[in-house]
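Input record, target 12 of the design panel.
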């Protein structure tokens, strides 16, 4: 019979008690019989507020669970939470919530905040948990990976999480990308979004801007021109391609009034060229523009600092 939340219990308790006692509990994880006396002895070592069932599963009142202080997600979709709550009413919390002790009969949620919120909505008195102990870097890493794998973060939440992980762990973008299973270009493009003014970041959160629009805004050198472009995207419904064209006009000294005809004359690119540009973006981590045709033309590679230029040089030449 399946155990209620018993996966990984031995490893979780090993951080809280001696290895000999943890070895006793690990017998539960492997399905070995454990006497009631041994189970009772092990349970006395647990923080107050956690209960152990007959199968060795750990349970706690969800009211005792506090949000992960390193949780990258700040907004939760109400409809999605209600759907999850309805599912929990029917089937219970299938996967244990990962927690660590916060002292005084309280616990931090390391992974599973959506499940916890939905369980509270469903009126559950107890939820299955697993105990862990993490440093700040690991708390953020676990929460970030869980959110990326289970439900999309909005662009700013994701960017902030990557940035915080870099700061806490003193990690490079390459190292962060490896930790969370993403391409380096994905991390680099996400973190760049944090350079946008606060109101533009908010528009990304609400969906007024897409990541493509944001990259066009970031390419504008003049803050005043960037502000004009932002207004035209939000108020005029510019496409990403039109936004990129207008950004290029601004950077070449053009003004907003001079761009209407240019935008109307914009010719859609060959889908094959667009696909190649996307491949260059993924490989180099920056925008690449192909002018001409598949047979003959030129490539423009954008960079935004001396360090960025050095990085591109290393990628292209293979030299450090």
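The sequence produced for target 12 reads:
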């Amino acid at each position: 019979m399946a155990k209620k939340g018993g996966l990984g219990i031995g490893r979780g308790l090993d951080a809280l008690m001696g290895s000999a006692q943890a070895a006793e509990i690990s017998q539960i994880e492997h399905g070995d019989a454990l006497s009631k006396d041994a189970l009772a002895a092990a349970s006395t070592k647990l923080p107050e507020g956690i209960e152990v069932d007959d199968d060795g599963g750990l349970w706690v009142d969800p009211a005792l669970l506090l949000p992960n202080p390193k949780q990258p997600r700040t907004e939760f979709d109400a409809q999605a939470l209600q759907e999850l709550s309805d599912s929990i009413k029917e089937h219970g919390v299938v996967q244990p919530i990962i927690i660590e002790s916060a002292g005084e009969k309280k616990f931090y949620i390391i992974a599973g905040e959506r499940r916890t919120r939905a369980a509270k909505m469903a009126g559950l008195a107890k939820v299955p948990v697993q105990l862990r102990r993490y440093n700040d870097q690991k708390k953020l890493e676990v929460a970030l990976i869980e959110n990326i794998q289970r439900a999309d973060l909005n662009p700013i939440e994701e960017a902030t999480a990557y940035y915080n992980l870099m700061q806490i762990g003193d990690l490079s973008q390459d190292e962060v990308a490896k930790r969370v299973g993403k391409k380096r270009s994905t991390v680099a493009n996400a973190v760049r979004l944090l350079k946008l003014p606060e109101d533009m970041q908010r528009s990304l959160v609400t969906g007024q801007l897409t990541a493509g629009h944001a990259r066009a805004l970031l390419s504008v050198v003049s803050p005043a021109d960037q502000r004009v472009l932002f207004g035209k995207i939000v108020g005029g419904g510019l496409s990403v391609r039109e936004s990129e064209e207008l950004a290029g006009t601004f950077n070449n000294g053009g003004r907003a009034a001079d761009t209407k005809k240019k935008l109307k004359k914009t010719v859609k690119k060959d889908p094959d060229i667009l696909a190649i540009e996307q491949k260059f973006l993924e490989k180099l981590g920056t925008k690449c523009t192909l002018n001409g045709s598949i047979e003959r033309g030129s490539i423009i590679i954008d960079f935004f600092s001396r360090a960025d230029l050095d990085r591109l040089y290393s990628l292209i030449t293979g030299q450090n």
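Residues 136-150 form the longest helix (15 residues).
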